[in-house]
């Protein structure tokens, strides 16, 4: 079977699950709302970074991206639907590629739109405090935010394929994002820069003093994502449906 009909079938699955469309809407709403709230925060802090503050809504918003990636894959394992899927598409690599495409493309598109809306909402509140941001820095922040959200969704998709369970993935990733990165990450110093979420978030800063740079941080997140996807594909190839 060619890749095009497989892509069409996988896209149809996403469009027919209201929960998935709702998850993307939650990504937009949560990120924009929290960024707007951050825009009216105190700007007297010497460590204040206007770009990061404007895009800080991605912290809670990324949970929706992770949930989207996990649910897109885990829906296949409910009611042994994966057996029917692989019977229709016996080439597992082709099916996996199509599945990842329907995770990556929507999250990237919504992520770019969300980052743009969040930046505008936060800038309205920040006022003169954000005047120092250049056009290039804002474009980099928006594009980087979209790519980061896409990578986190794919990271969740890879882990879900490995665990064969969306619950296991969300039970692992969400506490990691909410607890490990904030608590352990702060105590670990520069080691925290190499955590999958912390590394990718460097692109959201106007200036960042650390081991990694703007795009090298995203590269670290991409490496984590690639490792999860490879592990998931290995499990998919090795285990019977």
Based on the model shown, name its key terms.
mainly alpha; 10 helices; elongated
Sketch the major β-sheet. Answer: none
First-to-last CA distance? 19 Å
Low-confidence stretches are none
Q: Please provide the ordered H/E string of secondary-structure elements.
A: HHHHHHHHHH
Overall average pLDDT: 90
How does the helix and strand content classify structurally? mainly alpha
Q: Find the count of extended strands (DSSP E, 2+ residues).
A: 0
Count of helical regions: 10
Query: Helix share of residues?
Result: over 70%
Shape: elongated
Q: Can you walk through the features of this model?
A:
With 241 residues, the chain is an all-alpha fold. It contains ten helices and no strands. It has helices spanning 3-16, 18-38, 50-54, 58-74, 81-88, 92-126, 135-163, 166-188, 196-201, 214-238. The two termini are 19 Å apart. The model has no long low-confidence stretch (mean pLDDT 90).
Task: Write the topology of this structure.
Layout: H1 3-16, H2 18-38, H3 50-54, H4 58-74, H5 81-88, H6 92-126, H7 135-163, H8 166-188, H9 196-201, H10 214-238
Task: Give a short summary of the structure.
The protein has 241 residues and is an all-alpha fold. The protein has helices at 3-16, 18-38, 50-54, 58-74, 81-88, 92-126, 135-163, 166-188, 196-201, 214-238. The protein has 10 helices and no strands.
